[in-house]
Each structure stands twice: as C-alpha cells, then as structure tokens.
Amino acid sequence: MRLEKDSLGELEVPDEAYYGVQTVRCSGNYKIGNHTYNEFPEVIRAMAEIKKACAITNSEIGALNHVKAEAICKAADELIAGKFAGHFPVNVWRSQGTGVNMNVNEVIANRANEILTGKRAYDQVHPNTHVNMCQSSNDVFPTAEAIVLYRLIDPLVASAKEIEKTLEVKARDFKSVVRLGRTGLQDALPMTWGQVFAGWLRSVQRAREQLESLKEVFSYGVLGGTAVGTGMGVMPGYPERIFENLSKVLGFTMKQKVYADEVIPNSGIFDGMRNTDHHSVLMEVVKELVASVTRIANDLLLYASGPRSGINEVKLPMSAEGTQGYEHENTAYLCEMMTDVLGEMVIAEDMTFYSANEGQLDHGSINSGGFITLVKAIKLASHALSLFNNECLKGVEVNEELLRSYAEKSTSLSTMVGSLFGYPTGVKIAKQAIAEDLSCKEVAIKEHVLPEDVCEEIFDVLALTDRNKTIELFKKYRNIRKVD
C-alpha cells in the first residue's frame, strides 16, 4: 500500500492502483452495492476521449505545457483502448459523475507521470491542475453521457434492422400462404402470413426510425460550461476549439447546442447541465421498439401452441437442448424471454423518468442512476433482439395445409354471401355450416344459393385476401346481387 494525501488527509492506496486518494475516498463513501464503473467501459472510454480533447485544446491555446499534454494524450489513448480495466472502483450511485471524473483524472495523471518519469505520482501531471484543466465533472459527465448514448443507439438500430430483414424475407416467402385471421381470438376473415409479417415489419421499422431520429439529440455536449454553465475557469480560446478537437478524437461530430433565437448566450449549456428529459424520451422509444418485437414474440408463442392441443399454425425452430433436458424442444422460451426483457424496459423507463425529474436547482444531481439504467437497458435490448432474431425468428415455419383448412372452413366466409344477398342470408349459411360441420361453400352449393362455378370463385380464400380481387369479384357478379 502507498499513502496519498488530499485536502482531507491521508489514505492508503493499493500499490498496483493507478487511481489515487480521491477515488479511494469516494469508493468508501458509497458502499451501497458492487456496481462500479469497471462494468461500464464505454463510459470510461468517453471520459478518456474528453480528457484527450481537452489536453489537445489546452496545449493549442498555450494553457498547458506541450510535453505534459502529450503525456496526458498517451495515457488517455491507453484508457480508450481498455488498458486500465479494473482501475475504476467508484460506485455508479454517485452524483452526476463527480467520483468517476476524479477516478479518470487520477488514472490518467498517474500514467502520464509514469510516462514522463517512470513512476506514478502527481509531481509532473496533476489530476486537477492539468488533466481536469478548464473542466468540471458537471460539464464532463453530461458530455460523456451523450457520447455513450450516441454510440449505443447504433447497435440497437442494427439489431432492429436485422429483424426487419428477417420479417421482409418471411413476408415474401409466405405471401401466398393463407391463414384464418382472428379478432378477439375468434375466427375472422382469411388473410396471408405474408400480410402478417408485413404488418410486423412496419411496426418494428416505425420504432427503429424513431430511434434513429433521436441520434442527433446526443451529438451535443456542454464542455466549456464548467461548474454551473457560466464557464468560469475556462482559458481564452478553449470554447472555440474544444468541440472541433473532441469531434476529431471521437470520429463523429460533437458540438455545442446553439439556438438562433438566444435570449441569454449559451442557453443550450445551461439546459444540458440541468436537464436529462432527452434520456427519458430515448428510453421510451427503446421500450416501444422492444414492445413491437415482444408483440411478435407473444403472437408466435400462441400460434405455435401445441402441437396436438394448441393452435399449431406455426413451427418454431428447435433449440440445441431443451430447458427440461429434452433433446428436442422448440425455441418458445425465446419468445418468453422477450416478455421478460420488455418488463425490464418498463422498469428502466420509470427509473430514467424519475432521475430526469429529480435533479435540484442548477445540477442534475441524481441522474447517474438513470443514465446507468438507460445504458444497461439499451445494451440488453440490443442483445435480446439479436438473439431472438437469430435463434428463433429466422427459423419460423408455418403449417400450410392446416392453415388453409382453417381458412376454408371458417364461417366468416359467409360474409361473401351476405354481401351478395343480404345479412340474414349470410347468417343462415353460417349457422347451417356450423350445424352440419360443412364449409360455407359446401352449404351454398348444397342449398343452390349460387352455382358451383360461382362458389369456387367467391370462396377462393387466397383471392379473398386481396382487396382488389374481391372488388373485381363484386363487379363480375353485380347482376346476381340482391340487396335493396
């Protein structure tokens, strides 16, 4: 162990640690669980990228010695590459990033000193004076949050697009496979499985497009605001250069939000340091995306029920090993998994909303909990959608013969008779079909309601799934229609 000192006194720090006394003190103050920033390398990466951009900027404006800036950049690059995994023991339930900001500052400072002198210390590069120059945790952490969320949107969008691709393939494959539609779980009119998959496709697509539209919201940072947004402590030239340098480090454009109708200069910074309602909006859209996929999963679970005593219209792919130890079992459990994941999204939405609305005065002081919850939710959603798609959805097949028999025997086909001869006649056909266990077509032929060749046309279940074809049928047989 080594002794390190800060304004509050001395504390022991593990010899192997690159963090320092502030990290040890912060870790000790928040022992309420084992969740630390070691679990969230994407946050550490974003903060290290900010530190690198700040060092470059401070060197360019003459506020930071070039040699020290270069050492800070080298140390930050190592953090970005994940070299110091395990050196971030600060608990995630710690304010708006104050603890993790100092944790990152100390690791970079110790490593920068090691690069310059061969030993860990703060004599050449200090965590506050040099690494945190022109910064505050209050502008660093919200900017890091934006970077992390900006990046996390892409994998979730990719997972959604893969599901859309699968649904499109299935819609084309099953475009001529007739099934019996159901409303309120009761027999309805014929439709095709292609139509079902196409409808599912659009629901996922709509949610995914909403998610993509939010990405720009997270391309704005608040660096230069320092503690309360006023920028006190920022050196001349820093605000003009910081976002250009940060964008180069990140590989995408990050900027300060500027309004054309500014009443007070830099109002976007004052907003960004206090408010995280955009986190709530993002979480809501993530939940809706998961809900759209869960709806598909729930429907598939019901369609695949059986095989001998259920609906049995759908065949789910087999899993490698059954959950009960059976050698062959389908992947219904992945449909159930999506329901569990949606439950997690609902809980995460509540936490994110609560955090966004519980900050006090000039600082979103409890948002780290909401942010971490949001990060975990997005990562979970990305993995769940990918797993469900690859292991279940792609392998879905349908029982075509059974589906057609259900559609052809449906009493809902009496609607065609009712449209030609009035509602009472249609009801009569339906009741007789049920009583005699016949199809509506068979009853219509038996009772000489229509000629057999006409019945073959108007009871063609595939044709009845196409609105244009049914309209053409009514045009063709308008002369036999008897509705006043």
UniProtKB/TrEMBL annotation:
InterPro entries listed in its UniProt record: Aspartate_Ammonia-Lyase, Fumarase/histidase_N, Fumarate_lyase_fam, Fumarate_lyase_N, L-Aspartase-like
Kinase recorded as keyword: no
GO molecular-function term, one example from the UniProt record: aspartate ammonia-lyase activity
Keyword Lipoprotein in record: no
Pfam families cross-referenced by the UniProt entry: Lyase_1 (PF00206)
Highest taxon in the source lineage: Bacteria
PANTHER family found in the cross-reference section: ASPARTATE AMMONIA-LYASE
Name of the protein in question: Lyase
Organism encoding this protein: Parasutterella excrementihominis YIT 11859
